[in-house]
Design goal:
This protein has about 375 residues and is α+β, with helices and mostly antiparallel strands. Helix content is about 25%, strand content about 10%. The chain is built from 9 helices and 12 strands. It has a 3-stranded antiparallel β-sheet, covered by helices on one side. Strands 4-5-6 form a 3-stranded antiparallel β-sheet. A two-stranded antiparallel ribbon has the order 7-8.
């Protein structure tokens, strides 16, 4: 925007302007999520509307809204999330430098931002990889926030999301008509589990499977309806796809959450893990991850006695690649709406932990505002 390099405007086409959209934007301005990284890192994890734009001074003709500008240019710019969890795309960008720990911290950060959205009564609605951007140091940003399900705590009005993506929808919403008013909390929780799975399992969808039990279900959506999670069922007639990495790379605490989300949750949706559940498990496991003695780009679960990546034929994280920034973990969502969020950052030069109000790294004196 002219005169403001940190914001950008979204202008609606005339046929997209409705009274409901205008009312929804006003509610969004008055009830934003507590973004986990604004105060501590100066980064927007949720590109929430900042102001509403009108064509006239009387503010009767809606034009659009302003939102934070997210840098998507250059090697340090934010990119679509699939370019990180897809092994081929990731290697093209980073060689082996975006490690499995980076992937886990990215999933952790997505869980934290999702929890912040839920805390205010909102939902992402059509939660999928396309509305999440990721940076090389594992920071994330939710975009297209004007499509979210938004709750007005004053009038108790809900502005619903009218779209859905089949391979991220839970079985109970696979045939849903989103022209109807449907609460999307259940689809958020289900989709979050899928996204976490994709980041930890090299882009594999949790319901991708092979075997006679799914021969009559060629699409991912049909497999979701069947509810056969191939990593927990003990049938020879259904197995994970051959291209999936071995499931034992996943820590047992996270395996239990996947089972609750995709197996137990198939019949009892209330048993699916919340964003807070995912955050807690991912935070714990990311803290105790091990590093391989033979390849500095290999990181793996603390439960394992040896590096699984060294045994896998496909080289997911090639050695001798330049490292890329240090991971930045976001704080957990909290049930206390008056609580403050605080992010944790690390010096990009020496990996020294930094507090929110420091201007320079105490170890190497690098200015905080110059760090990637």
């Amino acid at each position: 925007m002219q005169g403001n390099s940190k914001e950008v405007a979204k202008i609606y086409k005339e046929d997209k302007i409705t009274r409901e959209r205008a009312d929804k934007l006003k509610v969004m301005l008055h009830n934003p999520p507590d973004d986990p990284t604004v105060k501590t890192l100066g980064h927007r994890s949720i590109a929430w509307p900042l102001s509403v734009l009108f064509y006239d001074y009387a503010k009767t003709g809606l034009a659009g809204y302003t939102m934070p500008l997210i840098d998507t240019n250059g090697p340090n710019g934010f990119k679509e999330s699939h370019r990180y969890y897809d092994p081929s795309d990731r290697r093209k960008l980073f060689k082996g430098g975006f490690t499995w720990k980076h992937l886990m911290v990215t999933a952790l950060n997505i869980s934290s931002a999702t929890g912040a959205i839920h805390e205010k009564g909102h939902c992402v609605g059509d939660l999928r990889e396309l509305n999440i951007l990721v940076s090389p140091n594992a920071l994330i940003t939710f975009v297209d926030c004007d499509s979210f399900q938004v709750f007005d705590g004053v009038s108790k009005t809900t502005y619903y999301t009218r779209v859905g993506t089949g391979e991220y929808l839970p079985p109970e919403l696979q045939s849903a008509d989103f022209n109807q008013d449907i609460d999307r909390r259940s689809s958020d929780i289900f989709a979050l589990g899928i996204i976490v799975f994709k980041f930890l399992m090299m882009g594999v969808h949790p319901y991708q499977a092979r075997g006679t039990l799914v021969d009559d279900a060629p699409t991912t959506e049909q497999k979701i309806k069947k509810g056969l999670f191939p990593y927990t069922v003990n049938y020879a007639s259904i197995q994970p796809p051959l291209y999936a990495p071995p499931y034992d790379i996943i820590p047992s605490s996270i395996q239990r959450l996947f089972a609750d989300c995709f197996d137990v949750g198939h019949k009892t949706p209330s048993k699916r893990p919340t964003a807070q559940d995912w955050y807690n498990a991912l935070k714990m496991e990311s803290k105790r991850i091990k590093n391989c003695d033979n390849n500095t780009n290999h990181s793996f679960a603390y439960e394992l006695q040896s590096c699984p990546w060294c045994r896998i034929k496909e080289d997911y994280f090639p050695a001798n690649a330049a490292g890329i920034g240090n991971q930045v973990s976001l704080p957990p969502p909290t049930a206390n709406k008056n609580a403050q969020y605080y992010g944790i950052s690390f010096c990009s030069e020496c990996n020294e932990p930094l507090q929110a109000d420091w201007l320079y790294c105490p170890n190497c004196n690098t200015p905080v505002d110059e760090m990637v």
